[in-house]
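The instructor's notes for this session suggest beginning with a concrete chain rather than abstract definitions. Hand out the sequence below and ask the class to guess, before any prediction is shown, which regions might be ordered.
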Amino acid sequence: MKAKINRRKLLRTFKEVAAIYGPGKRERDVADYISSRLERLWPVSEDGAGDAIDGDAGNLLVQIEGEGEPVLFVAHMDTVEPCAGVKTKVEDGYVMSGGDTILGADDRAAVAALVELAEAAARMRARRPLELLFTVAEEIGLLGAKHADYAAVTGKMAFVFDASEPPGFAVVAAPGSELVTATFHGRAAHAGIEPEKGINAIKMAASAVATMRLGRIDHETTGNVGLISGGRATNIIPERAEIKGEVRSHDPSKLAAHVAHINEEIKKAAAESGGDAEISWTQAYVSYRLDEDAPPVALFRRAARAAGLEPKFVAGGGGSDANVLNARGIPSIVIGCGMENPHTTDERIAAASLEKLAELATALATTA
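After discussion, reveal the predicted structure:
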C-alpha cells in the first residue's frame, strides 16, 4: 500500500532544504538537517567520504526495513554556487529563487522527496527494503559516490534522482569522460626588445586548440576546451600556458580515439613552435548503457505507470552518481526530477513536478 505524501509538507521541506548553504565539500548543515528528520525513525549512518575528500561531511545512508529485495535510492546534497541565502517563492505554480542565487532544485528537490518518502515509509503497511544514499560533492566530480562505503550498501539496483527531465523520464545510458590538462612550455623574452628570442606558449596553446575537433563530434561523442591560462605581463613572451578540457563518449573506442586526437594536436603545436608540452589525463567517469530488461528499467516502467506517468527512456549527455554505481556493478538509472534551468539563477521547478517526483519515489518503494 502507498502512504500519501502530504503536498504542503513536501513543499515546506523543499523550501527548508533549498535554503541551506551547501556547495561541494560544505554539506554539513544539509546532512544534519536530514539526520535530524530521519534518525528517530530509521538507522542513519555517515561514512568517511568527508575525510577522504577534505570535506566537512560524509555521505549519509538511511536504511529502511521492508520485505523483498532492497533497492538503493540516491540524491546528492551539494549544489553549485551562488547558493548562499537562497530565498524561495512560488509564482504561477513554480518554485523559484529570488533571482540572485540558484534555487538548488538540483538536487534538493530529490533530497526533499526522499526525506518525505522516508517519513511516509513508517506509515506503509508493505514496502520493499530501501536504502537512501545522500552523497556529497557530486557537482565537483562525483566525489562522494567515488568514496562511499559500499560495504554498507545491500541494494542490488539503484535509482539516482538527479536528471532535469520531467518525472516519468529515466536516463538509461550516459557517456564516459576523460579530463585533460596540457601545459605548454616555451621561452620567455622581452616582447619589445628581443621577441625573436622567445617562444610563445600561449600561441602554442592557441594553435593546438584551433586544430582540435571540438563540440559535437558525432551523436555519441563531444570534445571541449573550457579553460586556458598563461603569461605574466604584456611585455613578456609567455613561457608557460595551460589548457584544460574534456572528451565524452558513449562508445569507449570513440572516447579513446578522440583522446588520441587531442594528444596529437597538442604535441604537434608544441613541436612546430619549438617548445614542448606535458599532457595529463584523468578518468572522470565510465559510460554505461542498460537494456530494457535490466531490473531497474523494468521496475521503473511498472512504478511510473503506477504513479500515473508514461515511462520514457533517454540517453544522457552528462555524468552522475549512476556512472559510479554502474561501474561498481550496481545497475542504476537516473530519474527525471523536473528541475528547469539548473546551475543558473533562473532555475525553477513546478510544484506539480515536485509532487509527482515524490509519488514516483513512493511507487518505486511499493511496486512489486
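Then share the key points. The mean pLDDT is 96. The chain has ten helices and 18 strands.
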